[in-house]
């Protein structure tokens, strides 16, 4: 971890200022989890902790068509659902940031995770092509047709190099509905139309503002131990115990290695996503350093 360069900078770090848990009006965690960032690992950890630390565990059911952007009416319904569970408890759902207090309901504790955006988009590409993914979908929804075998076998590198429609990441492009899983920042930006265009300054700033103002912790998959330490210290009601060595789960053995050359091609079109990721990573490190744990100040 890169530490702050001066003790003067370090002395300015205050856990109270950096912790939005203090703003919560109810002991309810709202984990609007981003796909393919290690959220399954954190969800399973919370499930286990719910027994040990005595809090309710609630997650959204598998959806036939998962919609992450909601109309104002559906946002109000979701906010009411989050608020309907007896505290302490957690509610978990793949959905864009939904400001519960906007609907006159108590402010929950927001948490989430992020991941290197290019690694994440590659992970998503192969996740939706993994055999077990369609087995699970068929069991849940038997009438769903299987995809074209040619699509299943399509390689990410070739997809990028051939300028395939699926692997073009064009600034300002809007993809409504399902299938637009290019951006993790969208899960923080929210439901506003400005969040729709890909890789734009407006969407980036909305996402940053939501993290800064609303989220207690936004963890980083590549820095999982730091993430868990921060969660344990900033949201202790739910994460109180030694969790900093919890092992990741849900690895996709069907995901091949993608060359750095191809990753660099994709990175050129992910500038705002990369900036958002670095912003979240820096914030997490500030929260960690503010704890002034022995290993963080030596």
TL;DR?
This protein has helices at residues 7-11, 15-18, 39-52, 72-84, 117-127, 131-140, 149-153, 156-161, 186-189, 201-214, 224-234, 236-239, 260-267, 271-290, 294-297, and strands at 28-31, 56-59, 89-92, 109-114, 215-220. The chain has 298 residues and is an alpha/beta fold.
Walk me through what this model shows.
The protein has 298 residues and is α/β, with parallel strands linked by helices. The protein has a single domain (7-297), classed as P-loop containing nucleotide triphosphate hydrolases (Rossmann fold, 3-Layer(aba) Sandwich), CATH 3.40.50. Helix content is 45%, strand content 8%. It is built from 15 helices and 5 strands. It has helices spanning 7-11, 15-18, 39-52, 72-84, 117-127, 131-140, 149-153, 156-161, 186-189, 201-214, 224-234, 236-239, 260-267, 271-290, 294-297; strands spanning 28-31, 56-59, 89-92, 109-114, 215-220. It has a 5-stranded parallel beta sheet with strand order 2-3-1-4-5. Strand 2, helix 4 and strand 3 (89-92) form a beta-alpha-beta unit. The radius of gyration is 19 Å and the shape is globular. Residues 1-11 have low confidence and may be disordered.
